[in-house]
# Entry
Amino acid sequence: MQEIIIKKVEVEDIAQLQKISCVTFAQTFEEHNSAEDMEAYLSTSYATEKLIAELNNANSEFYFALDDAIVVGYLKVNTGDAQTENKDSSAFEIERIYVDSAYLGKKIGQLLFEKATELAKAKNKPYIWLGVWEENHRALAFYQKNGFVPFDKHIFKLGNDEQTDILMKLDL
Ligand SMILES: CC(C)(COP(=O)(O)OP(=O)(O)OC[C@H]1O[C@@H](n2cnc3c(N)ncnc32)[C@H](O)[C@@H]1OP(=O)(O)O)[C@@H](O)C(=O)NCCC(=O)NCCS
# Structure
C-alpha cells in the first residue's frame, strides 16, 4: 500500500464514484439483504444522473481515498439542504464513509473521517452528525471510538425492508 491520498471528487470522476459506491455498499450489506432489495437500492441510489446531481450540489462534497491512483474508499458530506434529514443549517452531516473490504482496518476510514472533521471545522460547524444501521457493529465501534454519541433513531428503507439507523453526533 502506498501513502493514501485524499482527493476531492469532480464530475468527471463519475464512473469511479459509481463503481466504488456500488462495490462498497454491496460488500457491507449484501449478506443481510435480498438480492432484489440490493439491486433496487443500487440502481436508484447510485444512478448516474443522481450522483451527478449530488456532485453538482454546492452543499455536498465527495472525496476519494486513493492508493496509488486506485480508489479504495470514499467520503460524502453534506451541509444545509443537502443533509438527508436534521436540516439544521448549522449542522454538518457525514452521509457516507466507505472503505473497500480489502482495505478495512488500515486507518483509511480514519483518514476520511479526519478530512470530514477538517471540512466541518473550516465551515465553523458546531457539530457533525450521521446515521448508522444499528446492526453495523464495525461502523458503530468506529464512530464511538471517534467520540460520537447516539441522539436519535430513524427508519431506513432498503428495498422493501425497513431497518433502524442510529443517529449519532460529535460536538466540535
Ligand atoms: C467504518 C469504516 C469506514 C472504518 O474504516 P477503517 O478504515 O476500517 O477504520 P480504521 O482502520 O480507521 O479503524 C478500524 C476500527 O474499526 C473497528 N473495527 C475494526 N475491525 C472490526 C471488527 N472486526 N469488528 C468490529 N469493529 C471493528 C474498530 O473500532 C477499529 O478501531 P481500532 O483499530 O482502534 O480497534 C470501515 O470499516 C468501512 O468502510 N466499513 C464498511 C462501510 C460502512 O459500514 N460504512 C459506514 C456506513 S454508516
